[in-house]
């Protein structure tokens, strides 16, 4: 078997092989090659697995993104995508060979981490990826969509904290592409776990709505000065209003957009497809049980490729020292690091000190963005704490002020 890099000339073979791996047929691109999810593929970052006689049997690709870390640091991240093996060649080592080849290439490029969305949860842990952000679907029956009156605990006559002074305008997706791109970019730079959406994604309509040109109505929120600072793209079918994503620069903007869609006439329920866990919307409703949570699931998986660089890249909110003994069985590596945090910055160097925690590189990926507490993985038997103080110390160090969340599909 041969694994080789792809070029633009390989696009059709790559797309056909990938679709065959999933038993699907490609859609027809719009004029100019856009309007399909693979329009933004970076063919200089793709891989093809070929049999001895040159037949393609597997694919793997990567996008060039920026990932927002705790502390609002932005780092390059490889977004692994389009991974598939033909049914005739599964369980023959093709996937593992492609993953090893890809990780080697990513390190050669100087990438410090890679991310992906896992089609099946058991697959990518063995390659060093761990679930790092989570999302859920929230369904609200229209008849139970009333908001509770705000509770005021401040100065008499003062507006409630987070009250909205802006306005909402209804547009069609085709009318507001530049607004969506600008607002999303502002949002993702402040949201840990968020990925960039390069301009060519928007220009080519690559991905899912609202990036794709699929017909959608868009509620655009503007601040008191008329500047767009949030949006909610939605469609209505069979009495259900489905919000593809709600992008807001603060909680007041999100609330205003939620009020708008929940007040829509002639619908029986409103579905918010991507809501961060512990989002306050359910608490804002007069009937707490009206917010029905479903599809509470993982979203972004993280794989650290350069542990010292990755740990020093993010921001930290508590001082302390932690010795991490990290095993990377897929790449056959085992290293021990001293993580020292002072004044929000970290230093990470090899050490021979006794470890505080022993963990797999996939577990380090899970705790990296602050969306999974180390103590949870200790209780689950994933991470070994070598003394009683290790778990609370690790929790305090990795904890973030803002939970990570990722909306981008790739």
UniProtKB/TrEMBL annotation:
<comment type="subunit">
    <text>Homohexamer; trimer of dimers.</text>
</comment>
<dbReference type="Pfam" id="PF17668">
    <property type="entry name" value="Acetyltransf_17"/>
</dbReference>
<feature type="binding site">
    <location>
        <begin position="119"/>
        <end position="120"/>
    </location>
    <ligand>
        <name>acetyl-CoA</name>
    </ligand>
</feature>
<dbReference type="Pfam" id="PF13530">
    <property type="entry name" value="SCP2_2"/>
</dbReference>
<dbReference type="InterPro" id="IPR022902">
    <property type="entry name" value="NAcTrfase_Eis"/>
</dbReference>
<dbReference type="Pfam" id="PF13527">
    <property type="entry name" value="Acetyltransf_9"/>
</dbReference>
<dbReference type="InterPro" id="IPR041380">
    <property type="entry name" value="Acetyltransf_17"/>
</dbReference>
<keyword id="KW-0808">Transferase</keyword>
<dbReference type="InterPro" id="IPR000182">
    <property type="entry name" value="GNAT_dom"/>
</dbReference>
<feature type="region of interest" description="Disordered">
    <location>
        <begin position="145"/>
        <end position="166"/>
    </location>
</feature>
<feature type="binding site">
    <location>
        <begin position="83"/>
        <end position="85"/>
    </location>
    <ligand>
        <name>acetyl-CoA</name>
    </ligand>
</feature>
<dbReference type="InterPro" id="IPR025559">
    <property type="entry name" value="Eis_dom"/>
</dbReference>
<comment type="similarity">
    <text>Belongs to the acetyltransferase Eis family.</text>
</comment>
<dbReference type="InterPro" id="IPR051554">
    <property type="entry name" value="Acetyltransferase_Eis"/>
</dbReference>
<dbReference type="InterPro" id="IPR016181">
    <property type="entry name" value="Acyl_CoA_acyltransferase"/>
</dbReference>
<feature type="binding site">
    <location>
        <begin position="91"/>
        <end position="96"/>
    </location>
    <ligand>
        <name>acetyl-CoA</name>
    </ligand>
</feature>
<keyword id="KW-0012">Acyltransferase</keyword>
<feature type="active site" description="Proton acceptor; via carboxylate">
    <location>
        <position position="410"/>
    </location>
</feature>
<feature type="active site" description="Proton donor">
    <location>
        <position position="124"/>
    </location>
</feature>
<feature type="domain" description="N-acetyltransferase">
    <location>
        <begin position="1"/>
        <end position="198"/>
    </location>
</feature>
<dbReference type="InterPro" id="IPR036527">
    <property type="entry name" value="SCP2_sterol-bd_dom_sf"/>
</dbReference>
<protein>
    <submittedName>
        <fullName>GNAT family N-acetyltransferase</fullName>
    </submittedName>
</protein>
């Amino acid at each position: 078997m041969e694994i080789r890099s792809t070029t633009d000339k390989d696009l059709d073979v790559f797309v056909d092989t990938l679709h065959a791996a999933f038993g699907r047929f490609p859609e027809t691109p719009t004029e100019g090659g856009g309007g399909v999810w693979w329009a933004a593929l970076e063919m200089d970052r793709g891989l093809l697995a070929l049999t001895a006689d040159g037949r393609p049997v597997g694919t793997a690709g990567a996008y060039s993104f920026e990932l927002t870390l705790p502390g609002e640091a932005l780092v390059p991240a490889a977004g692994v995508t389009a991974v598939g093996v033909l049914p005739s060649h599964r369980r023959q080592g093709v996937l593992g060979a492609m993953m090893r080849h890809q990780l080697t290439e990513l390190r050669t490029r100087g990438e410090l981490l890679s991310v992906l969305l896992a089609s099946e949860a058991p697959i990518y842990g063995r390659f060093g990826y761990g679930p790092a952000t989570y999302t859920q679907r929230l369904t609200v029956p229209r008849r139970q969509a009333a908001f509770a009156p705000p509770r005021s605990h401040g100065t008499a006559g003062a507006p409630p904290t987070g009250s909205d002074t802006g306005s909402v305008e209804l547009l069609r997706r085709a009318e507001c592409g530049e607004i969506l791109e600008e607002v999303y970019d502002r949002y993702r730079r402040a949201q840990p776990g968020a990925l960039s959406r390069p301009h060519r994604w928007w220009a080519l309509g690559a991905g899912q709505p609202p990036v794709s040109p699929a017909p959608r109505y868009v509620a655009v929120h503007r601040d008191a000065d008329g500047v767009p600072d949030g949006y909610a793209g939605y469609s209505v079918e069979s009495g259900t209003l489905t919000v593809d994503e709600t992008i807001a620069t603060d909680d007041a903007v999100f609330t205003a957009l939620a009020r708008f869609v929940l007040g829509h006439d002639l619908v029986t329920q409103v579905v918010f497809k991507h809501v961060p866990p512990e989002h306050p919307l359910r608490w804002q409703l007069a009937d707490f049980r009206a917010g029905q949570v479903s599809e509470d699931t993982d979203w972004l998986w993280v794989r650290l490729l350069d542990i010292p660089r990755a740990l020093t890249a993010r921001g930290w909110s508590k001082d302390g020292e932690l010795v991490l003994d990290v095993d990377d069985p897929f790449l056959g590596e085992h290293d021990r690091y001293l993580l020292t945090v002072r004044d929000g910055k970290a230093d990470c160097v090899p050490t021979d000190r006794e470890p505080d925690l022993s963990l797999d590189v996939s577990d380090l990926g899970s705790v990296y963005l602050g969306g999974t507490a180390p103590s949870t993985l200790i209780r689950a038997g994933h991470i070994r704490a070598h003394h009683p103080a290790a778990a609370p110390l690790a929790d305090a160090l990795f904890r973030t002020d803002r939970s990570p969340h990722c909306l981008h599909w790739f």
